[in-house]
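Researcher: Here's the sequence for the chain we discussed earlier.
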Amino acid sequence: MQFQVPQFIEVEDKIFGPLTLKEFLYLGGGIGMAVVLFLFVPYKIISVPLSLIVIAFSLALAFYKINGKPFANILEAAFYYWGGSKLYIWKKVDKKPAQKPEEIVQQAKSMISVPKLSVSKLKDLTWSLDIKESLNPGTREMKK
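Model: Thanks. This is the structure I predict for it:
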């Protein structure tokens, strides 16, 4: 049995003609607020600019996008920023080393063991290398 996988799930469905439900509600609310302002504010010189501002705001909510994000999301982020606390404190804490640097150096020196060769051991080592080389004379020629 095959199932159809939904595609284009990021795209909202167009419900009211070319408008999605959100766009329709933003526009309807803006036009409704503009009509209420126009009818109930006694002076037309005040009601007309306020109505135009409300309509422009509703158009921005419905259609305007900033960096691919809807204007409503930008407004939400702005309100969270303005309403939230902005107290960021960073205090630098100086870390004091548990040991003095000289002690650390001495510990490091004691951990590293460098073999000390005496003159006699060094001669023994060179003699053994010379003997092994003389026993296998072909190894020198093979390395070349």
